[in-house]
Amino acid sequence: MRESKSLPWSSRRSRPVLLALALAWAPTTLAEGVMDTLQVHGFLSQALVITDHNDFFGPSSSGGSLKYTEIGANASIRPRHDVLVAAQVLSRRAGGDGSDARPALDYGVVDYQPFSDQRRTLGIQVGRFKNPFGFYNQTRDVAFTRPSILLPQSIYFDRTRSLGLAADGLTVYHEERIPTGGIIRTQVGVGDIQAGDDLRRTMRLENTPGSLEPRRSAIGQVRYEHDGGRMVAALSTASARARFESGTPGMSDGSFHFRPWILSLQYNAELWSLTGEYAVRNSTLDGFANPFMNFDVTGESWYVQYTRRFHDDWQWLVRYDSLVNNRDDRSGRAFEAMGGGPAHTQYAKDITLGLQWSVTPRVLVAAEYHHIDGTAWLPLQDEPDPTQTRRRWNMVLFQLSLRF
């Protein structure tokens, strides 16, 4: 479906989700034949992560970590031919103390299509919807939809994944099939982002009394697919906002604003695919009386990826992935000179080799190797002290995935 941190059901942020679930059980769902449209699916992935230096998703540098698990179940039903009700619950553990493994609502929407024919489709979703962010964001937790065990971390951050995964609100989408054989897909959404603990850690506010509250945000994507998907291009952008409400007397509040632009391109041949994505990301935090807590930086991300399919059910991959936190300080030396920490925390260059085997349509086995220079996307829950990290490190991952 079109993902997210666990939120209390009594929270203001969950009201659109509650509305979606309430509508799901509206009397119309009892109509004759509706239950014939019910679909239920699920998936399970378990990975082993091994690093020579720096921990990633658990104590990976101490003999390996099994703290990377994804379990999900989803269901959908059509009360009417133009209404779809769908939801997914996800349990995801990625290092840390395991608290994130609590089952949480990944998405839950009522999807209404007031118009749909062979040429165009117009629809609206209400509830918790998946953000249209790049090529992979909307299905990033389903291993069968990923080209590798880890998506390119320069674009699809696991370090601050809650920020871009989902929103509570509404989204409008439109599909137009044009005579030249292409399809233009447009989606625009407005809602409250998921400002989780990972974002607070990245902003270095985890030890500051107060709360990080989401504010009304917007996201949109225009996507063009030509010749049945042989060529795909997309442009994504967002304006994501949150506010830190201080719990310390005399300390002012701060406002966070994240504005990314992502250009995505892909060419698909019969046996190979070439994919590239480029992003410019502006992040600001202001309003604090302490000027050292405020920042305004523009980062840059990009990757190029080649995948090759062989023997019907095998695929290998090679990828180069680059991330810099500040385009005006690509080496991180100015950051280090100011006492911010090691220079290598401000960039990451990753060379990835991967292999996938689809044992059956329901069983996937994957392995991959990463050689990384820099630690800009290293999760802070695994390495809270950047001064103890190593600049150059290697990582090997193995993963078994099942689906039904």
Structural features, described:
By secondary structure, this protein is mainly beta. The protein has one domain: Beta Barrel (Porin). It contains 4 helices and 16 strands. It has a 16-stranded antiparallel barrel with strand order 1-2-3-4-5-6-7-8-9-10-11-12-13-14-15-16. It starts with 14 loop residues before the first helix and ends with a strand.
What tags apply to this protein structure?
globular; 404 residues; Porin; 6% helix; disordered N terminus; mainly beta; 4 helices; 16-stranded antiparallel barrel
Brief rundown of the structure:
The protein is mostly beta strands and 404 residues long.
Element order, helices and strands?
HEEEEEHEEHEEEEEEHEEE
CATH superfamily: Porin
The largest pleated sheet is described as: 16 strands, antiparallel, barrel
Terminal CA distance reads 16 Å
Share of helical residues: under 10%
State the CATH topology.
Porin
What share of residues are in beta strands?
over 45%
CATH class: Mainly Beta
- Please state the average pLDDT score: 87
In spatial order, strands of the major sheet run 1-2-3-4-5-6-7-8-9-10-11-12-13-14-15-16
What structural class is derived from the secondary structure elements? mainly beta
Helical element count?
4
Low-confidence stretches are 1-29
Using DSSP, what is the number of strands?
A: 16
